[in-house]
Amino acid sequence: MPMVGSGFSILSEDFAAAPHRSFAWLREHAPVHYEPSIDSYFLSRFQDVKRVLTDHEAFTTETLQVRAQPVMRGPVLAQMTGAEHTAKRKTFVRAFTGAALQDHTRAVHANAADLIAPFLARGRVDLVNDFGKPFAVQMTLDVLGLDKEDWRQVAEWHSGVAEFITGIALTPERRRHCLDCAEQLEAYLVPVIEHRRRHPGEDLVSKLCTAEFDGTTMGNDEVTALIVNVLVAATEPADKTLALLFKHLIDHPDQMARVRRDPALLPAAIAETLRYTPPVQLIPRLAQREAVFAGTTVPAGATVFCMIGPANRDPEAFTAPDTFDIDRPDLGTARSFTAAAQHLAFGTGLHQCVGAAFARAELETVAAMLLPLLDQVRYSPGFRYRETGLYTRGPAALSLDFTPVREGGTGRG
Ligand code: HEM
Q1: Cβ neighbours of residue 209 under 8 Å, at least 6 residues apart?
Q2: How many whole angstroms from 356 Cα to the centroid of ligand 1?
Q3: Which residue in 93, 213, 229, 103 sits closest to 161, CA to CA?
């Protein structure tokens, strides 16, 4: 049952435990929910969320600037506008599509095979902590052209930065920890940037160092911010989506069996996972002028959170929205990883995820590789499923048992 009544809060423990139980109630009874303690409005209907994300003049990304400024030394893509945004976004688009994408796909295979190998003979893996998290970090480092040897350290630092940006109510201790992480990550990246300026390669860091905008290259602060932008944006949603995909397929054995028989169904399964359980649950914007939603006025200057979870389950947008269905005709899989996506898991409008095509390739490749290796995959005995996170959300762990693989069957090849 949803938590109804005037005491409802998005910041409550009840909501944190199972947000989806309140989605229908929010859409129907509180489509413009106000949280006084953080002076913010939460929108949950598909059309309202879409309106905010596509009306770039009335709703800007300035909120992100405020959230990110203390941990970023320069602007991230999400807070840029106009010609600067278009030009800098292009550098990313080139790095995440076409021939570059094919190179990354090869790296997906190699990284995934190395990471899963130690677990195959045991027949047990925690798909989040043993595999998904290191995999997503290593892939992001590969894409950027950073040293994978340092992945544990870099992961800890960028998690601190991400926690700062997505934290809704940080304690002073966590805040200090996050700021320390930002400083250490910057101290690690600046020498790398300076080296790439002198010896540029084909990697994204080199491209960011050498790209010219209005005849000038970016300073170290700006390049650092964009690298951290990718680290924060690319890793968390990818590892969460992979674990959620496996969870939904395990919970729907008929759909699991079909995907196993026909891996061409994987893009539909990934797209439906993104619709059903979007890993990025909140996208903040700043209202530049007064706006009315469902009869409620949001004042100029207000922080507005777009709630992607309930928007993606709005019956006005999707039939039987609370059902996980890889065959749903209203999703349009072919469009699901493009600017024309019907779901809102990648956002929409100018700031829609620039890594969507890459995320599809990464997830499709790794899932196609894992499925045959994880035969008879099921939850480990005694495992209790639990999700965490308000801003980004996913399983805390996903302990899975499967038929142990004999030596030599590592999936490499
Ligand atoms: C399943 C995986 C992913 C999901 C669900 C996801 C989700 C999102 C969302 C919701 C936004 C929009 C934020 C806003 O409007 O303020 C976004 C932006 C962005 N994403 Fe992703 N993302 C994913 C994977 C990736 C990957 C793999 C990369 C890079 C390799 C990436 C890089 C970015 C960047 C740089 C932006 C900012 C774009 C801009 O402001 O122009 N994302 N992502």
Answers
A1: 193, 196, 197, 200, 217, 218, 223
A2: 7
A3: 229
DSSP string, 139-163: HHHHHHT--GGGHHHHHHHHHHHHH
Q: What pTM value is reported for the model? A: 0.94
Please state, rounded to an integer, the average pLDDT across all residues of the chain.
92
Which ligand 1 atom lies nearest to the CA of residue 362?
A: 27
> Residue with the nearest Cα to atom 36 of ligand 1?
353
The per-residue pLDDT for 303 is 95
Residue pair 37/11 in contact (Cβ under 8 Å)? The answer is: yes
59 neighbors 52 (Cβ within 8 angstroms)? yes
Distance CA 139, CA 364 (A): 14
What spatial distance separates the first Cα and last Cα of the chain, rounded to whole Å?
A: 49
Residues 273, 243: Cα–Cα separation, whole Å: 10
Contact call for residues 361 and 104 (beta carbons, < 8 A):
yes
- Cα(10) to ligand 1 centroid in Å equals 23
* DSSP β-bridge partners for residue 400: 125, 379
Which CATH number among 1.10.630.10, 3.30.470.20, 1.20.140.150, 1.10.10.60 corresponds to the domain 13-401? 1.10.630.10
6: pLDDT confidence band, cut at 50, 70 and 90? low
Q: Whose CA is nearest to atom 27 of ligand 1?
A: 234
Tabulate helix, strand, coil % of the chain (nearest 5). Answer: 55, 10, 35
How far does the centroid of ligand 1 lie from the alpha carbon of residue 238, in Å?
A: 10
Task: Confirm if 324 and 318 have CB atoms less than 8 A apart.
Answer: no
Give residue ranges with CB within 6 A of ligand 1: 61, 77-78, 89, 92, 96, 143, 229-230, 233-234, 237-238, 241, 274, 279-280, 283, 345-347, 351, 353-355, 358-359
Per-residue pLDDT tens for 271-310? 999 999 999 999 999 999 999 999 999 999 999 999 999 9
Which amino acid, one-letter code, is at 123?
Answer: G
In order of 57, 184, 197, 252, 411, the CA distances from 384 in angstroms are 45, 35, 49, 17, 29
- Report which protein residue has its CA nearest ligand 1's atom 41: 351
Distance CA 99, CA 404 (A): 36
Residue to substitute in 140, 240, 270, 353 for testing ligand 1 pocket (most ligand atoms within 8 angstroms of CB): 353
The tens digit of pLDDT for each residue in 159-174 reads 999 999 888 778 999 9
